[in-house]
Amino acid sequence: MAASLKNNEKWTRYKKSLRYSLYVITHPLDGFWDLTHEKRGTYAAANTILFLTILVRILALRYTSFQFIQVYWEELNIFTYIASILFPLLLFVVGNWALTTLFDGKGRLGQVYIATCYALTPYPLINFPLMIFSNFITVDEAEFYSVLGMLALIWVAFIGIFGMSQVHEFSFGKNILFMVATVFAMLVMIFLLMLFFSMVSQGVAYFVSITKEMLYRM
Amino acid sequence: MIKQITRIGAFALATATLVAAVTVLVPTAPVQAADRSYTYNYDYWGDVQDSPDLYSVCKVFTSSDLKLEKKLLNPQGLYVHDRSVFICDTGNNRIIELERTARESLEVKRIIDSVSGVEPATLAGPTDIAISEEGNVFIADKGNARILKCDSDLNYISEYLKPNDATLDQSIPFAPNKLVVDSAERVYCIATGINKGLIKYEEDGSFSGFVGATPASYDFKQYIWKKFATQEQLAKMEAFVPTEYDNIFMDRRGFIYACTGSVSQEDLKAGKADAVRQLNLLGDDILVRNGVYYDGKFPVYGDLYMGDGGGYKGPSYFSDVTCFENDVFVCLDKNRGRLFSYDDQGKLVFCCGGNGNMDGYFRMPVAMDHMDYDLLVLDQLDCAITLFTQTDFGAQVFEAMDLFDQGKYNESQHVWEEVIRTDGNYDLAYIGIGRAYLRQKDYKKAMEYFELKYDADNYAKAYRQYRKIWVEEHIVTIVVVIVLLLVIPLVIGRYRYLKYKFETSDAFKYDN
């Protein structure tokens, strides 16, 4: 009985925090401040938004009209496709947190993650109807499609930037500076990761070939 | 031991997955099949699709097949007029006229090595010949630096010499290489070393200008380099000059197909140069390039893959082009010994051939022409003419196109369906069926077929009509739905308001 009540409380909180994302995207400054400082955002809601974003991107591959998206299914790997969304997001969150934490950023890693995910809200919100809409227009009306798609991205970027400034309690100029710096941090991380993985894979290949050689000779 | 290996395996797998995730950013080149059929096609994605033959070798004619006493030597020109085939036997300073007496036979009709009434009378390295509608013969007598105009019995009428144009260096000898004649006996000529376009002579033999020069490719990076280069470096650099055409062909409507092989891979891929162009009277390129391709329009430059393979690299080198009566044109690739055929929309019809010594393969194909729907290809090194005839499949494809052009859409559609039964990978057939349905106003079916082959332009045509009809049929429903969408919220709002008023009204409160 108590458990179900607790569950119910959690559920209400989850629903409330998810609905709060709609407030955040229309009132970014106020919204993001309360999101972390008043704890009106939850991990569950952030994960849901991220999941919806990925889901909409995958659905768009199949259900957008072929006039706008052509998919070479033979070479599509759903896992790398999902990774191509998650990986940059992860890099951004970690890179942003690692940098800002050195320069008086107030946001913790979890808060940066929640804020970033909340900033993604317009993407599924616009792109899902857009996907359906694409089936009712022709290439001549492609402008509607591309403008709306662009709008979603601009909106996401816009509130993302504001979100970070609220989470870290940065001034506008300092925030812009750190957004640019985050991009460089991401590049550095990609470079290090590639270096690491290429070295590891060469190291593994070395032992694999030695093992093979020994097996041949036994 | 097993456990350790699995651990290494798992680690390697994890690493591989992560590396794969990293390499998402790096595009991978498509892999080509090792073994492929003689004829092939490129689909929307640029993948090679094996295809049944549209053309197959009927017979290869060598010097001995033609019963020539003196063997062909370095022949460079081939021209077909009615049932006659002219071969410019350049190395032997003569032109051989053959007659096609039966499907598989060519017989020597006459050997042209001189004309009467002019000095010198003998030909020197003739490279091309053309015959006008009046029957006058035009010969590109390259070694003698002249174009000869003779009557049908080879009596000299006049000769065309190097244009007296100020922009031409008169010290370099005139070398007319290829020529065509239009219905008014105007001559268009390609001369070696002249890159201003085609030389145009009026019917009276006077030079009237250059037509259809390719635009010179030029970019900012090159410009900067030139600014800083020394004289020696400048001399080694390529000049910003238009490229010369390699060959020309005049179709039945008087449009000139001009092809060139001296274009770089980068320029072709960037769309800055054309391997083949269709020139109108003003010299503008009017070739339709409407083929569907994942990256813009389907490129009309032969093979899509230009990598090193089998000892050949670089783009296809179009050494000749010919156009059938139904506006399907065929280009001859000297580099890989292949034929590339496109329809009037620039969609690929077929590719076939290769380098080699077997029938249907070439070593140095330089000239090509067609007789009805048969193709004749001249190989300069083999000194042989390859005669291609249509297979049943090829005839079917052409029949479907012809039926469509005649407005017999239903028949055309049935023939295309037959084509698909033979080759389910033949994209043109799907689009053909779609176009036939479109003309028969069956928009829904047309859309299905266009969608299968990603033909967005045609799909848009069909869908626009389909949508229009749908809206017209359902206009009442649409209006009702819109009205309801407006009215229902109003009603609900009103209801709630009233309910709220009702519940909070003082009239219903207990007065304690």
From the spread of the alpha carbons, the general shape of chain B counts as elongated
**Helix content bin of chain B:** 25-40%
Structural domain count of chain B? 3
For the biggest sheet of chain A, the summary is:
none
- What's the architecture of the largest domain in chain B in CATH terms? 6 Propeller
What's the alpha carbon Rg of chain A, rounded to whole Å? 22 Å
Taking pLDDT < 50 over at least 5 consecutive residues as the criterion, the unreliable ranges of chain B are 1-33
Write down the oligomeric state. Answer: heterodimer
N-C termini distance of chain B: 89 Å
The termini of chain A sit apart by 66 Å
CATH class of the largest domain in chain B: Mainly Beta
Mean pLDDT across all residues of chain B, rounded? 87
Number of helices of chain A: 8
At the fourth level of CATH, the homologous superfamily of the largest domain in chain B is TolB, C-terminal domain
Examine the coordinates and then state which fold CATH places here, giving the name of the CATH topology of the largest domain in chain B.
Answer: Neuraminidase
Helix proportion of chain A: over 70%
- Indicate the proportion of strand residues of chain A: under 5%
Please mark out the parts of chain A with pLDDT under 50 across 5 or more consecutive residues, or reply none.
none
Specify the biggest β-sheet of chain B. 6 strands, antiparallel
Largest protein interface, residues of each chain: A-B, 26 and 26 residues
pLDDT averaged residue by residue of chain A: 91
What does it look like?
The complex is a heterodimer of chains A (218) and B (512). Chain A is mostly helical. Chain A has helices at 2-26, 28-37, 43-63, 78-100, 109-119, 122-133, 142-168, 172-217. In chain A, helix 3 runs parallel beside helix 5 (109-119), helix 5 (109-119) packs antiparallel against helix 7 (142-168) and helix 7 (142-168) packs across helix 8. Chain A is globular and about 70 Å long. With 512 residues, chain B is of the alpha+beta class. Chain B has 3 domains: 48-390, TolB, C-terminal domain (Neuraminidase); 405-473, Serine Threonine Protein Phosphatase 5, Tetratricopeptide repeat; 478-511. Chain B has helices at 2-22, 220-228, 231-236, 265-269, 392-405, 409-422, 427-439, 443-452, 456-473, 475-504, and strands at residues 39-42, 48-51, 55-61, 77-81, 84-89, 94-102, 105-112, 126-131, 137-141, 146-150, 156-160, 176-181, 187-191, 198-201, 207-211, 247-250, 256-259, 276-279, 318-323, 329-333, 338-342, 348-353, 365-371, 374-379, 384-390. The model of chain B is unreliable at 1-33 (pLDDT under 50). The interface between A and B is medium-sized, with 26 and 26 residues.
